[in-house]
Amino acid sequence: MIPDNDPAGHKYATEVMKALATQTEKVSLLDISQLELAPGQDIADWFEISMNNTIERLNSMKAIQPVVSTDIQAPNNHKEKSASDKYTPLFGQFYRFNESIYVEDKSNKKHIEICKFVEITAFTRCSESKDYGAVATFKGKSKKLITLHFDFKNMHVGTELIERFSDTGLYINPAKSIIFKQYIAAACERQAKCLRRSLKPGWFNGESTNFVLPDKVIGTADDIIFQPKEPSSLSETIKQLGSLQDWKAAIESKLPGNHYLVASLGLSLSSLLLNTAKLENRGFNLCGCSGSGKTTAIQVAATLFGDGTQPGQGVDNIYTQQWNSTANSMEMLTSQHNDLPMIIDELGMLDDKNFGKTIYRMCSGTIKGRLTASSKLKEVGTSRNIILMSAEIPIFDKVSENGTPPKAGQLVRFVDIAVTKENMVTELHGVANAKLFIEELKLNCGKYYGTAGPEFIRCLIADDTVDILALRKAAENELAEANPGISSEHQRVFRHFALVVVALRLAHKYSVLDNDLSESILVVAKDYIETSGSLNDAHRAVTHLRESLIAKIHQFDIPKIGYKVPGGCERQGLIIGNVPMTSSDDNNKPKSLDGCKVETVISGPPLDERYFLMTKLAITKILGSYPFQETIEYLKALGLLNTDAGRLTGKKRSFPGEGRVRYYEISFDFLEN
Known about the structure:
This protein is of the alpha/beta class and 673 residues long. 34% of the residues lie in helices and 18% in strands. Strand 7 (118-126) and strand 8 (132-139) form a beta hairpin. Helix 8 (259-270) packs across helix 20 and helix 11 (327-336) packs parallel to helix 12.
């Protein structure tokens, strides 16, 4: 006999067993509790629960007499009081009573509550990492329905799964943590619905048809879900307030003619086009003194996707970040903003003595590999970003804090854009003065936000005729015509300025912007050329050499002796190297530049033929990480290097007591150029 798993079923089975006892020699009653059924289930339910439940397995189970489990009843403290109180069989040993999940404790025949009811609504699969996960819904302590995403591996790593559910408001019986994980695993196994999982926001799988945001997917697919491996703060910062028309009236209407405010908005908008434009990541630093309006500019940019309130105003979950974390943390935060603008305020807050390396890491598009808790290498992540930030110091100075001058590659990856009070606000649009204009714009950035960015994405997906690459190249030609003869380093930066032009024109085409603001980028690009100077390493190396010599020139003695050159002519100069010639104030203590000292000074007419005589070792010590050969080539091109028959080799000169020593002769003229 196999009764139903409830008191009525056992009672009926007992009566039938007694009746059959007069007709047969033996009647056995199977202990139904061995099958781990929920109250009210029967043997048919058991066969459906798992493909492993077979006749053979049932026959192998021990049947006993007399009747057992006569005390099966409703869970403790949950007597049926109304028609709404009911049992719902789930699977295995689990069942739902009202709003909670229970399991039977076989040792004392009690029924114990595990947690409030949790439903697995789908499992997820990531095409990038091949990881699986699931989506769970439940009502937390706030009584609101909560959706939680987790990886399958969370069920096998310590208490991570318990912590994730607990942190979002689900109370779990501490004594039944393992049973809870078993319930989640069994529920996942029985869910057939599969969603495609995106580990990061942005264009899904690099295609231009679906864009993933934490709260929605914009595009044609309905089976994609945002499910990062780690909880992402981006989920709290992507939000909206007000309508697109509100945003246009309060913010966009203030931008025409204010070129640097437009540039800030356009740079952030262009982050959405990096994928199809085939451009590398790049950072832009609005650099200016306090009160120049640079923070207001990045607030405007932040309103594309989130709250543009100024940092430090006590408002939670604004879009703009601050440099108040480690370089590693900022790198990870950058990866969480894939295909979205990464906006950061106050570079000066960052305590990073190797900021040059941080630049490469943040702009590389590849997230540094790290070890998991089990000492396995995590998969290397990728990201596409435009990074927009503000600072009172330029990138050059920040990189140089550790004593190492920046390289050209760093200065074109993180680009300084100089801003001033005068060039930030040039059109007041009916406001009395610039101060009131800025105050009103700042206030509006915290009132209307989060609509323009998603609307631009929707229009871009719907526009199946747009060719971003062709538009970018056309804009590059436009910028090149307006700025002929620029260096290759500037050309690299101009590729991104061209993309900003494209983004602003498309936004106007799609009616996301009421005005075509792209002309402002031509103004900002020209200003950038004038303020940035040359970006090549050789130019900066010569500048560094010049500044080093000027800074130390007061330590040199007044010239007193001369040296002979071919033809018998004497020249005046400074010997910088390893020749142990003495200074006039102390005949026993030579000086050298690379150690804040210098070996002696030599002199002689004519004064228009003065040179620094420097060994290669002395030059390389001053240059540090700057390239030696490129520097020498550049000095020659500038006409500042004295050479024999056009050769770049150092010249051998004779000095008292030293014989012939090889030196490079660098003209004094470069101190003034």
